[in-house]
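Hi everyone, sorry if this is the wrong subforum. Our group has a chain we'd like a structural model of before ordering constructs, and none of us has done structure prediction before. Sequence below.
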Amino acid sequence: MAAVSVVVITKDEEKNIRDALAGASFADEIVVLDSFSADGTVDICREFTDRIFQEEWRGFSAQKQRAVELAGNDWVFVLDADERITPALAEEISKLVDAGPDRPGYRCPRRNHFMGREIRHGGWYPDYSVRLFDRRRGRFQERAVHEAVKLDGEAGYLKNPMLHFTYDGVSDYLLRADRYSTLAAQEMRQQGRSAKISDLLLRPHMTFMKMYLFKGGFRDGIRGLLLAGLYSCYTFSKYAKLLEMTIKERLDHGLTRTNIRDKNP
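Answer:
Right subforum, don't worry. Here is the predicted structure as tokens:
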């Protein structure tokens, strides 16, 4: 029978990590890669595993890939600190791995929660992502944000969802969105992309319409409205930062050319 490792990356997650690891107790091994937490995260982790490593932060994708590499088993389940593996999902994972999976990896649905309630619409469910996979046939792609696993072959699907207790509220979302939008803008700029005025005028509007109307976010009441508005703000911020980067690069380039001319009359 194959064994499975649950891997988690952490940084100051003492409010979340106990519940996350409690749900991972079915696994043959729990691996925690911590980025030198300043709170009680590591002490709590020691209640569940001695496979705890501390290394500097590399970025989301690189950090998760490193955690996967530290695992003692080839089959891994990647868990975030604000996620929970339910007993039904744990049983499904164990049976699947024991029986011998016929796919290189499996997408897991998530039941996302916001402001104390589950969000069922607006694109927030089933929210599939590859979490269970054979590390010999999959790895995290190098991305600054929205990290994802690339598999050598087609993914299967798990039936039972895990729980995701995401943003505590509006302020928590805005704090994290500022960081994520910067990373997303940097990634787009590295790909050679630039922003236009039309991006700022149209994309936030379309994000709102897509979430709130086309994907039924209105069915989640005030929370659906808040999320559609917040995601449209994120979209505007991402493209605004991309435009800012483009302008700064052009200004710097212009100043450099001016300095060269001044030094070489």
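For your construct planning: The two ends are 76 Å apart (CA to CA). The first helix runs from residue 17 to 23.
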